[in-house]
Inverse folding.
């Protein structure tokens, strides 16, 4: 007879406690014993820091941090679609860090590249020091040209796996907690994704057919939904009478041709979104691992929630924020613009698109959109999302100035 059984029988025999009370008492006693012996411990998560962020087009999150003992603030994109923490090659050169060629590859919609690494480095967010980091090195000049500001790196799942991370779009802050027990706020929904390096979420999508598939949960993608061409063709998912429009996208591996359309419904847990803008791409490099994965959920959809990432428990908790009912962007111009050498320039123009019909030429310098002469590419992107009429755009072409009338069309 062990000590617990002896105590139970003694208390019952002496009528100090009823049988049911003894049972409750012993349950509490066993719980205390488990905690005391280390078999089960309770550690509440503790807030480490709150860091402000800003958002770029598509809901992309950018944080400020510092590297090693340098005081310069660096721009890092927060990205659950990236496995590692990575550093821009020019930033690496600036701080005289010598990367080493590795046997790893990074894959994007435009292709793949062999990676270089720097090892055992330290990063600082406000109030948080992260040591012993191995950083991938990549060329992020293209990201700077897309967003109009230099991007020094990406904070991927290595960061998320170390902490509990809460993204709050209402306060424009991320809150970083130590691992442990945390109470999720009321009024939301707990997702239980699978984690195969990147989080993968089961999601219901409906168009020509109802389909339950799996998608990467990717807050580093500035779009709503991306589907692989294989998924679309094999499932006959899209309504056949609807013809997607053609466009180009620039990724880390180069340019890729995409189609843009919409799907009738996307359902994430209990939350339903109607007529969701959707990109379709030819998955030449097998990024989505089809048929296991159909595509990805991007942050132009996910930014409508405040989100808690608890990788240790394999939890993602969503609760709607003030952007939940923001309208989707249905505009189509066929025009790509980039911020290059301090100017907003025209990059790609799709044949027979509204941009071609308006008279745009590659390398035109955009001086103004409507009455906005700021040269801010983020403001111009937002203004070009209108489908209510013609948009006045002033461009410089060589030594001449021209005013063009662009009429975006709707993908609906």
């Amino acid at each position: 007879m062990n000590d617990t059984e002896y105590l139970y029988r003694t208390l019952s025999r002496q009528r100090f406690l009823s049988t049911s009370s003894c049972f409750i008492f012993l349950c509490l006693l066993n719980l205390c014993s488990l905690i005391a012996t280390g078999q089960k411990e309770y550690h509440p998560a503790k807030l480490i820091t709150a860091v402000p962020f800003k958002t770029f087009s598509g809901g992309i999150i950018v944080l400020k941090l510092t590297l090693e003992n340098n005081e310069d603030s660096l721009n890092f994109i927060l990205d659950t679609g990236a496995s590692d923490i990575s550093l821009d090659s020019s930033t690496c050169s600036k701080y005289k860090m010598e990367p080493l060629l590795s046997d790893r590859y990074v894959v994007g919609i435009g292709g793949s590249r062999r990676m270089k690494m720097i090892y055992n480095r330290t990063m600082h967010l406000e109030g948080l020091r992260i040591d012993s980091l191995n950083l991938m090195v990549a060329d992020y000049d293209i990201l700077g040209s897309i967003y109009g500001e230099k991007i020094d790196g990406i904070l991927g799942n290595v960061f998320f796996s170390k902490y509990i991370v809460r993204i709050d779009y209402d306060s424009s802050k991320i809150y970083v907690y130590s691992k442990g027990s945390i109470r999720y706020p009321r009024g939301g929904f707990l997702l239980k994704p699978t984690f195969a390096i990147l989080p993968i979420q089961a999601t219901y999508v409906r168009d020509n057919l109802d389909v339950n598939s799996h998608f990467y949960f990717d807050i580093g993608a500035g779009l709503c939904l991306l589907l692989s061409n294989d998924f679309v063709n094999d499932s006959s998912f899209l309504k056949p009478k609807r013809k997607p429009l053609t466009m180009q996208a620039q990724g880390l591996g180069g340019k890729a041709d995409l189609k843009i359309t919409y799907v009738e419904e996307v359902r994430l847990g209990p939350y339903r979104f109607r007529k969701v803008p959707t990109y379709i791409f030819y998955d030449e490099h097998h990024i989505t691992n089809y048929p296991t994965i159909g595509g990805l959920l991007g942050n132009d959809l996910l930014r409508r929630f405040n989100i808690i990432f608890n990788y240790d428990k394999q939890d993602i908790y969503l609760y709607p924020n003030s952007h939940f009912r923001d309208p989707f962007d249905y505009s189509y111009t066929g025009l790509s613009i980039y911020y290059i050498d301090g100017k907003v320039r025209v990059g790609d123009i799709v044949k027979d698109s509204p941009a071609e019909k308006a008279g745009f030429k590659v390398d035109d310098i955009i001086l103004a959109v409507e009455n906005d002469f700021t040269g801010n590419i983020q403001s111009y992107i937002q203004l070009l999302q209108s489908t209510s009429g013609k948009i006045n755009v002033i461009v410089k072409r060589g030594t001449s100035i021209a005013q063009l009338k662009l009429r975006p069309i709707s993908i609906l």
Confidence is low (pLDDT under 50) at residues 2-40. The first helix runs from residue 3 to 13.
